[in-house]
Specification:
Homodimer. Its cofactor is pyridoxal 5'-phosphate. Belongs to the class-I pyridoxal-phosphate-dependent aminotransferase family. The chain has helices at 16-24, 49-60, 75-86, 91-94, 105-120, 135-143, 162-171, 194-206, 230-237, 268-286, 292-301, 304-335, 343-346, 358-368, 388-399, and strands at residues 31-32, 98-104, 125-129, 146-150, 153-154, 159-160, 177-181, 210-215, 242-247, 259-265, 351-353, 370-371, 377-379. The chain is α/β, with parallel strands linked by helices and 400 residues long. Helix 7 (162-171) packs parallel to helix 8 (194-206), helix 12 packs across helix 15 and helix 14 packs across helix 15 (388-399). The protein binds pyridoxal-5'-phosphate (PLP).
Length: 400
Amino acid sequence: SSVFAGIAQAPEDPILGVTVAYNKDPNPAKINLGVGAYRTEEGKPLVLNVVRRAEQMLINDPSRVKEYLPIVGLAEFNKLSAKLIFGADSPAIKENRVVTVQCLSGTGSLRVGGEFLARHYHERTICIPATTWGNHPKVFGLAGLTVRSYRYYDPATRGLDFKGLVEDLSSAPVGSIVLLHACAHNPTGVDPTIDQWEQIRQLMRSKSMLPFFDSAYQGFASGSLDKDAESVRMFVADGGELLMAQSYAKNMGLYGERVGALSVCGSADVAVRVESQLKLVIRPMYSSPPLHGPSIVATILKDSEMYNEWTVELKAMADRIISMRQQLFDALKSRGTPGDWSHILKQIGMFTFTGLSSEQVAFMRQEYHIYMTSDGRISMAGLSTKTVPILADAIHAAVT
Ligand code: PLP
């Protein structure tokens, strides 16, 4: 028998497991609202035209070779990524206070940032929102940080528990790292208002807390790259320090290319030393990052015409999602489905946190072949004009 005979079967990832179950369902009418990826109105994955164009340019360029990138990745990509999130005129960039390294999408950026902090930052506690992307506690726990949560989502209002958030951050250790979703909080779709962000900023700075922003949806939430970076830029503008994890999975549709960036915004005199230590985190982990994805991103970001084309395609994705919110809300209203569904309109980004219980989720899977995570999160990007009425019928049946 195998030397691995004693190994237990590991549970399926709770998010990716939804798609596994969906794929096993033979019913042709099945609907998958579990995937965190954009789908067209026809239910198909989308490669942006501007991405196809950039790839063609790269293929046609005979000077391109397949040599290794440096440990920190493509320099041009790193520069452009910092500019994209912090803003073209960011004083932090001008003052050379930002170090950026290319990482394996958002997840890799969080992991590298987490390990760097576990080695070099004096307070190992990271506070994450109570309910957050399911991978956060695992990524930071394995990176060597102590994970603790702060209240965030209020099931009663299906909105932000701002009072709870303030209380919990106030009682967390001085200097704690605080994970913040830059926009379009996953899974709740609930973001602080600008006024609340300002209060969070003041509270955190007064307690010398270190912000760690996770930006997986810049431009994908509102349709505007600048608007979705407002929270981050408030924290950069005060001159204080922060970490920033960026992903191009959603906003450029580069999911499987695994392209992202980690920035550390500190002071000019530490930047070079910080970068040297980030290299020591990365080198034994995967040596150096991939070449294709960041080359696409850099090609688009450095060319104003391609950049503009990207913003138009990005806004079209965001607008389709926003219109799905309105259509679902209207469909429930017209059915007279009991309950207040206004949170479907108020929440932002790829997901709606419906408030459906795990029993109701199971009922909808059983009776309607509609798949979502057991916490009642549905991907608005997976809906279409054709499937909204089916989902509305299912929700109506589940709650009545
Ligand atoms: N952070 C949040 C909040 C996310 O929702 C996701 C993806 O779903 C990620 C990070 C990481 O995504 P990726 O590693 O594909 O960039």
